[in-house]
Predict the 3D structure of the following.
Amino acid sequence: MKIIAVCGMGIGTSVLLKMNAEKVLSQLGIDATVEATDMKTARESRDAQVILTTPDLAQLLTGLPSEVITIEHFFDLEELTKKLSASLL
Amino acid sequence: MAFTKLAEAFGEDAIRVLAVALDREHAVALSGDLLVASGRVTPEYVDQMVEVLDTHGPYFVISPGIALAHAKPSETVISTGLSLVTLAEPVVFGNAANDPVRLVIGFCAVDHDSHIELLAELSNLLSDVQTVNSLLNAVDTEHIRELF
């Protein structure tokens, strides 16, 4: 499964999101690759099952085939665990 | 000194405590000015950081009270680095989940992937509630450097 973590430029916020998502996915035993990417690449992406991003950016990522999961607190692994397991398990 | 990459990433003049920011653009610019002062970016990079806020909104307020301000790798970046500014008065960025902001981390990278370990250390630092409280309540820059 492919997951993309999306932020404005794909080098800061999304990298932090990717790292914590990978921790949680491994704890949940879900086999997935997570790529950090920018908004432009995300809008052109068609092969990601899930897009992980912030509530602000999610509003700009509508109309894509991927499920969009929004994360508010990046360092709160409980929020990530809850939302990823609700969607993927 | 558990965070060796973080310690290197903050240049000599990259940390400021209890700064006064008039609004969110000013808060972002303060963190950018510290990257300029520590020789990591040119002044144009600071304008680009503020443009990111104008273009994409305050999505980079990633945790309660904490913003990670940056622009993209370009010729305005001299070397990868971080800056940190704590705000004397919290500033509203417009991020419903995490407002108001009390701590702005400035970040610049020379490319898309050579800073992953650095951000992993930053993530570990900011995941610790006690450390974040120490950052927010620091009264001088030495108190902050002691946390790396």
User: Anything to note?
Assistant: The longest strand of chain B covers residues 81-91. Chain B is about 40% helix and 25% strand. The domain at 4-143 of chain B is CATH 3.40.930.10 (Mannitol-specific EII; Chain A).
